[in-house]
Input
Amino acid sequence: MKPWLLLPVKVAHDIAPIALKLGAAFQTSDIPKWNPLKWKGLTFPNRLGLAGGVDKDGELIEEWWAYGAGFVEIGTVTPKPQGPNPGKIMGRDLESRALWNRMGFPGSGADVALANLRDLPTKRRTPVFVNIGKNRDTAKDEAAKDYAECIRTLAGFADAFVVNISSPNTSGLRELLQPKQLQRFLGAVLAARTKVEQDSPRSTPVLLKLSPDAENSALRTVVEVACELGIDGFIATNTTLAREHGSPFPPEGGVSGAPLASRSKEVLHQLRDALGNNKGERLLVSVGGVMSPEDVRERLSLGADLVQVYSGLIFEGPGFFKNVAKAMNTRGDV
Output
């Protein structure tokens, strides 16, 4: 029985933080350990983490740890606070196990995210990724300045940055994935990372989140350009503008959940193929349509280093992390 699925999606969304806080108080304190990973000085107790878009301001990081997340991604964080796009911004379809949103990076801004990160214990239980984006009123040609500002504000408090230029819900954002624009934009973002950390003993990794709607040839070009610039890894994928036959959702906005699974796996395959022997220490994170422990196991078998969940939490509840851990330990994936 999942009573939250009986509520209107917006109501369930709005009361979720309260319910999560209450439920976390009844969780066991230990984060499940299965198939741990060490990467660039970071230790992941298990391979399943929270995807970006759930905890936008980093208010519930300790609660996600209580539920068993092996890492947490907060955001998307923008430099200035902003509200959601006007009109209807979210939907849910139980039959297809799909979510739809056109939120457009709503959040309280980088200063609030910084305050929440500062409140965490000095010794964190897992790595915390920060997904960063631009404010919607920032011109596309000025976008790199917003991402650089987020890096300057949050440097030293993010264990990794996730560059989000693949959301379909901010006008013109995906145009930054075009090769010439990506070269200029991502080069500036990575240069900002280098500048703020020139006296730091450790550089904060930067990951690029990919769009599922790019053609395979375009995807490979994005990967090639990003690697040439020194990207540390990729997250595949963001939500999709594609619609299955009979989809109840409007054409604008991104769909996640089960309908995204096939394309997400295909992008992971293309990513692995594009990198080939040049993967090195680059981190590959798979997200999109991860709805069961079997899905987590499959993504790892397809070459993902880490897996993230978003829609699976909505349809299965926050116990998803520990259910996956139990399945992994039962099968011996430790």
